[in-house]
Design goal:
The protein starts with a helix and ends in a 37-residue tail after the last strand. It contains six helices and two strands. 45% of the residues lie in helices and 2% in strands. It has a two-stranded antiparallel ribbon with strand order 1-2. By secondary structure, the chain is mostly helical.
Length: 226
């Protein structure tokens, strides 16, 4: 688990929010911030009691990148972003792109911490509580972000432009009818009937000189060599 967690990219799986963060999302990020602070407190406590809080530190680092827009952790974020760890945060440098890694790491840490709750001491229990709570808020926040992106997709974009083509192709006219009522695509009157009301083949054929109907392969030809 530890080698896999160390190679985990910090930006994956979360749809990018096209618009500004809503007040509901900001409220959950505020709660996640206190969970991240609690994870660091539990990590320091475990370190002082002789334990190695590697998983807590990893989860806390991802949490700082997740809270890049928060002014209260801006100094800590700037320090991590300027370190080699900043390359793992993706092109956006953190933000909601780190939401799924935070949810993934905190959830798996809770699974392993649950096996040692009775023997790990009070700081391990504190770490379990804060990481479990942070995972719950991260899951709820990811649900809201996904729902927001689904709504924008149905509207065709952030501004409601570019709606998908839902009209049947039968309603789209390539050639509008002429002012005289004739259909230019078919060469027949719009009513569908031929001249004289019969609707037969004599109603709409081409005419030759003198008003008569034009019939192909008629007339006399010229004899060659005669």
């Amino acid at each position: 688990w530890r080698p896999a967690a160390a190679m985990l990219p910090m930006a994956m799986g979360t749809p990018q929010l096209a618009g500004p963060i809503t007040p509901e999302m900001q409220e959950k990020l505020h709660k996640i911030k206190f969970c991240v602070i609690g994870i660091y407190v539990a990590a320091v406590g475990r370190l002082c009691t002789g334990d190695v809080p590697f998983n807590e530190l990893l989860c806390g680092i991802v949490g700082i990148f997740l809270l890049k827009e928060d002014d209260s952790v801006s100094t800590c974020y700037a320090c991590l972003a300027s370190s080699p760890l900043g390359q793992c945060a993706g092109p956006g440098g953190g933000g909601l792109g780190c939401l799924m890694p935070f949810l993934f790491i905190s959830s798996f840490n809770c699974v392993f911490l649950a096996l040692r709750l009775t023997t790990g001491g009070p700081f391990l229990l504190l770490s379990f509580i804060f990481q479990f709570t942070g995972a719950v808020f991260a899951w709820r926040l990811n649900t809201e972000v996904s729902a927001n992106m689904a709504d924008l997709t149905e509207l065709g974009g952030p501004g409601g432009q570019g709606q998908p083509l839902t009209q049947p192709l039968a309603q789209m006219r390539m050639f509008p009818p002429a002012p005289g009522g004739n259909d230019q695509a078919g060469g027949r009157p719009a009513g569908g009937g031929g001249g004289g009301g019969g609707g037969g083949p004599s109603g709409g054929g081409p005419t030759g000189p003198g008003g008569g109907r034009f019939v192909a392969f008629q007339g006399s030809g010229q004899r060659l060599g005669g």
